Amino acid sequence: MNMMYPSSSFTLTRYHSGSRSYTKMSFPVHCGSYHIIETRSHIFHFNLNHEIIRARSKGSDWGHPHEWLKRTAGNDWVYYSTGGYAGVFEAIGEYYLPNFRYPTNNILGGTPFKLPDVTELVDGWYDMVAALLPASQDDDQHRFIKSVLRNTPSLLQAKGEKLHDIIGGVVSVLPPDARHVDYNVIPLTISRGCLYKCRFCKVKNSTPYRELPAAEIDHQLISLKELYGCDLTNYNSLFLGEHDALQADPRLLVQTVERALTGLGLTHSAIDGGNVFLFGSVFSFLGADPGLFHALDRLPGKIFINIGLESADQQTLDRLGKPISAQNVKEAFARMLNINKTYPSIEVTANFIMEDDLPESHYPSVLALIRDSLVRNCPKGTIYFSPLRFAQPSRSRLFEFNRLKVASRLPTYLYTIQRL
Ligand code: SF4
């Protein structure tokens, strides 16, 4: 159903059918089913629970008609800019550049949240929509706006907190591969903490690694289903948290993915395909039985496993406080290439650290893997370079990244830390 309601001051389009698949285009492509209110000055998008999910101004002071504000399920506003820089796609693999209100390791981007048009929309969208109520032309418009107004900013904040309560806290970092679905993932925690507690890491917590009992995971699934409600149909992807889901018992891991895909309806969503994103560590990846990859490969959709390798240089690993050896990293990299070649539905990707003042041996050690260990270019096994410093955009680090990207025989992008 796609109906337009003209009125003197706004139009309402209910159940607009957006794209059925995530595609990388140089203009915004919005997926799934959503409602649209358009006024002379703004466009607002609402999900199927009538919660605001996107907005933009149509004014001349707005950065670009392709730029949007997005509200995440964790109730963060993210500003999608075109970047004002032709190389955004080459740098991050997407045509948009996400800008956040919290500190991240972004080396591109500006400060859109300081622009009056942006702050007015983030702080004022509710009043703008409320002001439309008297101009409703019929009962349907009136009912829809009343329903949107029930989802007040404080209720949306409470709902974001409820999500965090269900899964055991804020997702401090999503895997970089989640960019393929615009970070629209349902988070489900299978284990907490991580193995290493690396000194350099800004997203870790102090929780010792522990796997959750199946009953606790099932309880999360029930609560998530209730929380996302009607809008579940707009999700086709799962993030299996927290920092090292691959370390969980293989039977629990496969069973959890199966239960989540069916229980949350991710395989028959309004968006084609299905994806599972998770992190692994060098030890969990090296220790994983081949049977696990066979089982994961047979599941519906694609599986993306992201491993933090950081460096193949011992001096750098020691300086980072990462308690693994350069030899472990080389073995994990070799296994990554092998798994990617063997299993069509699985892509293992890897992260390396990028910083100005690392030991000189760091970049040669990385190039020995991503350039010299491959005889030809390979489309699978994306490499992400993760800047260490937060809140410090830097063109010189971008220059360094471009040098590495040109040399790499694998798809190579920057990793921007994004939370949920
Ligand atoms: S980099 Fe990964 S393993 Fe190391 S502390 Fe951070 S989350 Fe844990």
UniProtKB/TrEMBL annotation:
Designated name of the protein: Radical SAM core domain-containing protein
This protein's UniProt keywords: Iron, Iron-sulfur, Metal-binding, S-adenosyl-L-methionine
A Pfam family of this chain: Radical_SAM
Entry keyword annotation includes Nucleotidyltransferase: no
Species for this entry: Desulforhopalus singaporensis
Signal peptide positions (record): none
Radical SAM core domain: residues covered: 180-420
Gene Ontology, cellular component aspect: cytosol
